[in-house]
Protein 1
Amino acid sequence: MINDYLEVDPFASRMIYKDFISGKIINKYEILEGELQPSPKFKELMGNLDKYQYLYDLLGFEIRSIGNESFFVTRSDRIEEYNEIAANIQVLILCIARGVYSLGVASGILFDPTSGISTKMLDDIGELEEQKRILEACKLKRPLSDSVVPILLNRGIMLQLPSGRYLLSQSGRFMFNQIILKEELTGELDGDTTTDS
Amino acid sequence: MDTNAQNTLVLIFQHVDIFFTMLDQYSDTKKSIIGFQISAYESVISTYVDKNNFNKQDIQRLRVALSIKNLDECSLLLFVDESRGQFALHKGLLQTIQNLDSKRIRELGQPDLDNIYLQIKSVHDYFMPKAGLYDKESDDFKENLSALMDILQDTLTKIDHNVRALEGSSKRLSDILESHDFNKMVMSDQVSSALKEVIRISKRNIGPTLTFLNEKAMTSDSSAMLLIRNIRERFQSDGFHRESSDIATIEMKLLSYAEVIMATRRRMNQYVEMDRSHRELYNRIEHKFNKLYELVVQRLDSKLTGKKIPADAPFFDEARSFRGLASWTSTNLVGGLIEMPERDCNDHLDEYLREQFEEAEAIKSKKRTPEKTGLSAKERLAKSIRIEQIKKVMDNFMQDGRRDDLYLDLHGYLVANMPTYELKDIFDAMHFVSRKGLINPTTQRAVITHNSQTLTYLIRQQVSAND
C-alpha cells in the first residue's frame, strides 16, 4: 500500500482528508462515544505534520494551525477570498458570549463539558434585541441555532455533547480568547472587589 | 407568660452590640472587667439608638428595659454604686456576653495596632537607653518590666482572639460562597453581602495584622516586632534569661499567627479573585459587543434594515486566523490553481509560459502520436527508381488486342523483360496499361506463382475499344 511508504495511518488520513475538504477544523479534543476525548485525527496529524503538509502542498493546499491545538486546510492563493466564514464565526461567538450574560449565566458555560449551552438558550439569545439586529446586519439566520449549526458546529468551532448542548472546541476557545481577551481595556474595570493586600 | 426579667434578657441579647462596645472600651485599659461607668453605658446606648434608626416606641422600650434601674430590678446586676457611678453585670451574664464576643471579629484594625505599637515603644524607650545598667530592685524597673509582660501578653491575647474569630468567620463565609455557582452571574443577597464582608475583613483586619506581624517589615524601625526583638536580645545579653525566654515564646507565637492568617487570606481571596475575574471578563465582552453593535447601528439605512458589514472590515481582524476556512467542494477544488491577470496583453502569460516551459513539458499528458509515413527517403528513392524501370519496360507492352487474363499476360511480359521482377511489381505495372481498351473484372480466381511467391487474384479481361 502506498501509505506504508509514507508511514501514516491510512484510516486516520482518510478521516483527516474528509474533514479538511469539507471545511472542518480538526481539534485536539472531540466528542467520542459521548465523551470529550483526545482526537485520533489530531494525534495522527501532529505526529506526521511534515508529511501531511507536503502531501497537501502537492495538492495545492496549505495546512494552517489555530493556536497549535487545531488545524484546517486552505489555499494560500485564496485566503483573502474566503474571509466571510471567519467574520461570521467572530460575530456568532461574540453574540453568544454576551447573550449568556443576558440570560444570567456566565460565559464559563461555553467551556464546561458537564454543562454546555442548549439550543433553546441559543435561540433565546438570537431573539435579544441587540443580537437580532447584529445577526440581520451580518445576514445570519435566525433562530440562532440555524446559524450556529452550519457555521460553528459543522466547522468544528463547537462540539455537540450527547445531551444535545453545545461546547466551544479548542478552535472556538482560541477565537473566544482572540476576540475578547485580546481587547485592551484601560480604566474601565470595576475595582470595588479588589483587595488591597 | 413572659416575665419582665425574660423580656429584658431577650432585649439585652437582641442589642448585645451595646455590651460589646462596652467590653471593647474596657478591654483596652483593664485585663479583667469588674464594673462599667454608668455615664459611659448611657452614652453608648444613646449612640447605638441614634445609629440604628429605631422608631420612637422601640427607643422608649429599649431605654426603659436597659436602664440600670430595670436591670437591677431584674437581678441582672452584681452591684450598683451610685456614689461612684459604677455598676457591674451579673457574673454569669457578663461571661455569656464575653463568650459571644469571642465569636465575632474584633476590630483589630490599624488604630488598635498603632496603639499596641505605642505601648511597646514606650517600654522599649525605657529599657534600651539603659544599656543593661538596670536597678533590678527599683520600683520603676519592676513596674516597666511588669508593663512589658502585660503588654505582650495582651497583644498575644488580642491577636489570638482575632485569629480564632477570623477562622470562624472565614469558614462561615466560605460556606456561603461555596454554595454560590460562580457561573451564575446573578448573586443572591446573602452571597453578595458575604463577599462584601470578605473584602471588608481583608481590608480592615487581615491586611494591617499581617503587616504588623510581617517578619520582613522588622528591618524598619516602625515595626513593633522589631522593638520586641530588640528588647529580647538586650535582656538575653544582660542576663535576664527568664524574661528573655518569655518574650521569645510570645514572639514566636505571634509570628506563627502570621502563617494562619496568610492561609485564611488565601482561602478568602480566592472568592474575591473569582468574582473579580468574572467581572473583568464580562466587562471585556460587553466592551467588544458594544463596538460591534455600534458598527451595526452606524450602517442602518433609512428603512432601518441595515447594510451588511463587509467581512474584511477592521473589526474582524481578530478572526484572521480563520481566514481561508472554506468547504473545498468540487466547485472550489477544480478551480484553476494558476490564475492569470485579467489583462488584454499576453505579456504576463507569455512570460509565465516561458518560465514554466520545462515544467510544462514534464507534466504534459501523453498524446497520441501520428502514424509513421512508412518509408524513409532512401526507400522512397529506391521505389521511385523501380517505378521508372517498370514504366520503361511497359512502354513496349502490346496495348491493343484482347486479353483474357490481363494479370497473367503482364506477369509473362515482365518475367521476360525485367530481370529484377518481383510478383508485387505486377500491381505497379497495371497503372501503365493503356486505358484505351476496357478492363472488365470477372469473378473467376486464378493463381500465379513466381519465386516461391504466390498471388491469388480475380481475373481481369481486356477488350479493345472497337470490340
Protein 2
Amino acid sequence: MTQNEHRVKGVDHAAFPTFDPAATVRFYRDVLKFPVVHSICAAGWGPEQHPDFIHFFFDIGNDDRIAFFYYFGHQPVGDPQARGDAWARLPEGTPEFFANSRHLAIHVDSEQDLLEYRRRLDESAWPVEMQVMHETIESIYTHDPNGYMIELTRALRPVTPQEDLDAALTIDALCEVATGADPSLEKLLTRKAELIVERAAAWEAAQQPETVSS
Amino acid sequence: MTALFVLDVPENEGVLRVAEQDPLLVLDKIGPYYRISGTTDEVLLDRRATGSRHAVWYSAIAGLQDAHIAQHDKDVLRIVSSHRCDAE
C-alpha cells in the first residue's frame, strides 16, 4: 500500500448513546480527566420525529474524540438486567467474551501513564476490573457508566516489520479458511504455513536493502 | 515432517531456546520464521521451561505443517502428525 492510498488520520470521533449524561461526564471528564471539547444542542426534526438531543465530545488524546448522544425523552428498550450496554441489550445466552469483544482501547505511552489511569479509576465508582499483559501490550479494563467496555493500553515494545508480514499472511489465510467449510484455527495455521513457505523468504530478501541503507 | 512455525520476535525467544536444546527437535529458518520440526512425528513443548507468559504461549504458533494440535493447554503444547492414527 502506498502512502497516497492511505490518507486517513486516525479517529475523528467514535459515537455512542447514553441515558445517563451526568455519570458519563463524571467518568470521562472528572475521573479520567478527558477535556470536554465540543457539544451540539439540537432540536429534533424530520419525518421520524427525531427527539431533541445533545451531542457531546471528549478529547481522548491525539485530537481524537469519543462522543455521546443524549436524546431527551427517549427510554432504553430491552431488559436492563440483560448483558449489554446503553446501545443494546443482548439476547439471553450471549457469552461475556462476545459482549466484551466490542470495546474502545485508548493508547497511553508508558507504564507510568497506564498506572496513573489505573489510580484514577480505582478511586472512582468504576474501578479497574482487569489488568492484563497480552502478547506485546499491557492493558487495564473497566466498563463506563453506560456499560461500554473501555481499555487503556500501552505497547511493551514497538511492532517489528516481520509482524506486519505475519499479519498479512494470517489475514490471507483467514479469508480463505473463513469462507470455506468448518473454519478452525488449525485449518488457518495449516494454510498459513503454506503461505510462509511461499512468501517469507522472498519478503526477508526484500527487506535487506532497507536494513543496509538505514 | 511434523512441524510448527514460530515468528522471530522477542516474546518467542524462550520457546525457540527450549526447542533448540531439545534433541528430538530440529530448527530451521524461512524468512523471519523458525520452523520447529519433530524427528518423531511429534513436537512437545513445556511452557514452564520456556518462561513464556500465557498470552504469549497461546499465540506462539504461526503455522502448522503436517500437524494436528493434540494438546495446547496452559503448560503443554503437543502437536502430532496429521497422518498419525492417534491424532484427535
